[in-house]
Amino acid sequence: MTEEMIIAGFGGQGVLSxxxxxxxxxxxxxxxxxxxxxxxxxxxxxxxxxxxxLSDEPISSPVLTRFxxxxxxxxxxxxxxxxxxxxxxxxxxxxxxxxxxxxxTDIEVRSLGAYxxxxxxxxxxxxxxxxxxxxxAVKPVLEVENVIKGLEKVLPERYHHLIPLxxxxxxxGIELMQDKAGALNGQG
Length: 188
Prior knowledge:
- The protein is an alpha/beta fold.
- It has a single domain, classed as Pyruvate-ferredoxin Oxidoreductase, domain 3, CATH 3.40.920.10.
- 39% of the residues lie in helices and 25% in strands.
- Strands 2-3-1-4-5-6 form a six-stranded mixed beta sheet, sandwiched between helices.
């Protein structure tokens, strides 16, 4: 199993943290991992992205131009990375702030209202964890428990009291994505 993904959005949305958490979660699960961040000097408010590779085999190169999965959290990232998803791949996008939906028909496309849900949870800082949950609902590349262990590694110890809230957000993201899938299949 090798999963090559890009996570992209505005600086301040937790894009780079998401990649780190997934990679640490992969380490906890015994996988080989690669995390490569990319961001402009403006950071918060500018665009940021990172590539993540999770594999049960050695990773030959962290440099990618095509992805199994793209998680895009803003319109500039959609415009840039929609074409980079491999045919048959997955594109997850945040609904809030998008001016158009993806146009490709040769990939699986899923939307997630993670920002609105983070507002309902009264903490927009868990937005990125809701997105991770949405990913895990569609592609369970990691066990939730290992993602939580990854979060413990990334989050400074002074914020460890927030881990239960973040776990709740991951589980809420899983639930949201499953509910959307059920609604699409006429079950919701």
